[in-house]
Amino acid sequence: MALNCFMLFTVWVLLRLPVFTAESKCRSELTSRINVTTELRSDVLLPCIFEPTLLGSNKTADVAAVWSQRNITVNNLVEIKLQGVVMFWSNRGGRIKAFPKLSESGNFSILLRNVQRSDLGLYRCELYEGTNCSIAYQELHL
Question: Coil, helix or strand for 33?
Answer without folding.
Answer: strand
